[in-house]
Design brief:
167 residues; 2 domains; 26% helix; 33% strand; 9-stranded antiparallel β-sheet; alpha+beta
Length: 167
C-alpha cells in the first residue's frame, strides 16, 4: 500500500462544450457544500443517504430542499446519515455529484466564474487555493495527489493507475 493514501485526489478537465469539471476526493462533503452561496437554488435533485444501520433516505424524504443550504442544514442536524449518492443541478446550471460520501465533483458552465467558489472551498481545507487551482489546470485530465498547502505529490494519467498504486 502506498503511503499517500490520506492525500486527496484532485482532477480537472475542460469538457468539449467548454464546461469545467473539478473533482475532489476525501473532502468533507457537508463542509464543501456549505461553501456554495446560500442563494443557489436546486433545479433538480437525486439523493440517497444511509446510516450505519442501513436505513436509507432519499430526496423525497427531505421536506425543505429548495436550496443547497437546506441540505447542509439537514445533514448537519442528522449526522447519523451520510450521503451515498447525490446528483444536483443548480439554477445556474452548476452540476454537483457526490459518491460514497468522500468524492465530490463540480461541473461549471463555461460562463461561470468558478475561481471565487473554489478559492473559498480550498482555503476552508487549509490549501493554498491559487497554487492548487493553477496546478490542476496545468495538469488537465490527470489525477493529482496534492498535499497541503499546495504540494503536488504524484500525478496519474488514469484513475486505474491511482487505484493500483494505493491498493
Amino acid at each position: 500500500m502506498d503511503k499517500n493514501t490520506n492525500i486527496p485526489v484532485m482532477f480537472y478537465k475542460e469538457k468539449e462544450n467548454g464546461d469545467r469539471l473539478f473533482s475532489f476526493s476525501d473532502f468533507s462533503i457537508i463542509k464543501t457544500l456549505a461553501q456554495i452561496p446560500k442563494s443557489y437554488k436546486i433545479a433538480d435533485l437525486y439523493l440517497m443517504a444511509s446510516n450505519h444501520k442501513f436505513n436509507y433516505i432519499f430526496d423525497n424524504d427531505i421536506k425543505n430542499k429548495q436550496f443547497i443550504s437546506n441540505l447542509v442544514v439537514f445533514f448537519t442536524k442528522n449526522t447519523e446519515y451520510s450521503i451515498d449518492d447525490m446528483n444536483v443541478i443548480l439554477h445556474n446550471n452548476i452540476k454537483i455529484s457526490v459518491h460514497d460520501d468522500n468524492e465530490i465533483t463540480f461541473s461549471f458552465p463555461k460562463s461561470y466564474k468558478y475561481n471565487r467558489f473554489l478559492t473559498k472551498m480550498l482555503n476552508s481545507f487549509d490549501y493554498n487555493s491559487t497554487n492548487v487551482i493553477s496546478t490542476l489546470i496545468k495538469n488537465s485530465d490527470k489525477y493529482l495527489l496534492i498535499a497541503k498547502p499546495d504540494r503536488l505529490v504524484k500525478s496519474y494519467n488514469k484513475f486505474d493507475e491511482y487505484l493500483t498504486d494505493t491498493e
